[in-house]
Amino acid sequence: MPKENLGFSKRLNAKLSEKRLSQADLCRLTGLASSMISHYCNGQRVPSVRTAMKIAEALDTTIEDLAIFKSPEEESLLFVAQGEGAYSRETLPDGLSNIEQTALVKFRKLNADGRAKTMAYLDDLLSTGKYS
Q1: Is 42 within a domain?
Q2: How far are the Cα atoms of 17, 41, 81, 100 from residue 96, in angstroms, in the given order?
Q3: Comparing C-alpha atoms, which of 57, 61, 49 is closest to residue 15?
């Protein structure tokens, strides 16, 4: 079992304990199947970023609290799920919200053309004044 799975499950179980919630409570709060919550808590699987965000929201915390570790000698590293498999590491700036973290991870996966289109789209959205 990858070390990242155990790290996520350890932080998830700690947060459940801190909030005095059971796995069943988390199922009700997230709408996720009890088998999936059990796999996450036991370190057998890791959630996708979207699912980790749903869990973080249900626990009134951030994805950072569940999936990022920090130590004095290293930068913040976000374990980003690849499908339902192991996490890869992406260095991200501190202080980003869940949606900003997700957007940045996706943006970094784009090639130059995709990044240019994304920036043009953002400029268009902002120029309308409707979304800012």
Answers
A1: yes
A2: 25, 25, 18, 6
A3: 61
CATH number, domain of 54, equals: 1.10.260.40
- Global pTM reads 0.54
Q: Per-residue pLDDT tens for 45-88?
A: 888 778 888 898 999 988 777 875 544 333 344 454 444 444 45
Residues whose CB falls within 8 Å of the CB of residue 54, separated by 6 or more in sequence, listed in order: 30, 31, 32
- For residue 74, the enclosing domain spans 3-94
Q: Are 76 and 94 in contact (CB under 8 A)?
A: yes
The candidate with the shortest Cα–Cα distance to 48, out of 69, 22, 75, 30, is: 30
Give SS3 for 27: helix
